[in-house]
Amino acid sequence: MCRWLAYSGSPLLLDAVLYRPEHSLISQSLHARMGVESTNGDGFGVGWYGVDDGDGTPAVFRDVGPAWNNRNLRELAAHVRSPLFFAHVRASTGSAVQQTNCHPFRHGRWLWMHNGAIADFPRLQRDLCMAVDPALFPSIEGSTDSEVMFYLAVTFGLDQDVPGAVARTAGLIEHLGKEHGIPDPLQMTIAVSDGHRVWAFRYSSQGRSRSLFYSSRAETVRHLHPELDFLREISDETRIVVSEPLGDLPGVWNELPEASYAVIPSGPDTDYFPFFPAFP
């Protein structure tokens, strides 16, 4: 499995989140506390949207080595400032360790990353790929279930309805899994963004999903920890979604409930909504 992080809010240098926290994502690449594997060294990636939005297409940097000793990643993180970025450290579930299998995946203005797996993916792969829009199929570069899920979501209307597209993707996987006699075919935590919003999903067929947490609202954290000077500089809309908390400060991290999704920026009334697969 893998560990990932999604940040949205006031522009800041990537290393403020990737390297500086007590239990940063770089630390998690070597010493994860909540993952299936403690080491996530089968590649990494970062994707970010510029402060000047330009054409809205995000930049992506991926490599096959471990994140903890990559000098290029440290250099980039110390100089790139972004209001919205993804970062992912990979532990392969069987697919090859190669750059095209590293997250996040990009298509147009969209970024996508995943922790989890489709059970017995080789048995379902052909049927799932046949459901991808033929015009999109040539864009699939790697061999992971995660990338196929991404292009299924694009096929099922990611541009119009993100939760609906992900629900239809999950529903197809569940449906095909049952047809092939696979009792619990899907395990997923997913982040997806169009450069303006982030959607984060937590779901599994078994009802025992991998860990996923989101940060409390900025005003709440300011009230709880007035000694943290950097909180004065971030907007009220700033939030982080992580596979594991980046530290142990009380009141900062909240577990996203099973079978739910969050949207950032969030609305005034709720931080998350229920998530259910939509079966074909």
How many beta strands in the DSSP annotation? 13
Averaging pLDDT over every residue, what do you get? 94
Give the neighbour order of strands across the main sheet. Answer: 3-2-4-1-10-9-11
Which structural category fits the helices and strands? alpha+beta
N-to-C SSE string, H for helix and E for strand: EHHEEHEEEHHHEEEHEEEE
Beta percentage is: 25-35%
Give the helix proportion (percent range): 10-25%
What general outline do the C-alpha atoms trace?
globular
Termini gap = 28 Å
Count every helix, treating DSSP H or I runs of 4 or more residues as helices: 7
Enumerate the spans where pLDDT stays under 50 for 5 or more consecutive residues: none
Q: Biggest sheet, in brief?
A: 7 strands, antiparallel
Radius of gyration: 18 Å
Protein name: Class II glutamine amidotransferase
Keywords: Glutamine amidotransferase
Domain Glutamine amidotransferase type-2: 2-280
Pfam families: GATase_4
Question: Would you kindly provide a written description of the structure presented here, covering whatever features stand out?
Answer:
With 280 residues, the protein is an alpha+beta fold. Helix 4 runs parallel beside helix 5. The protein has a seven-stranded antiparallel sheet with strand order 3-2-4-1-10-9-11. The model has no long low-confidence stretch (mean pLDDT 94). Keywords: Glutamine amidotransferase.
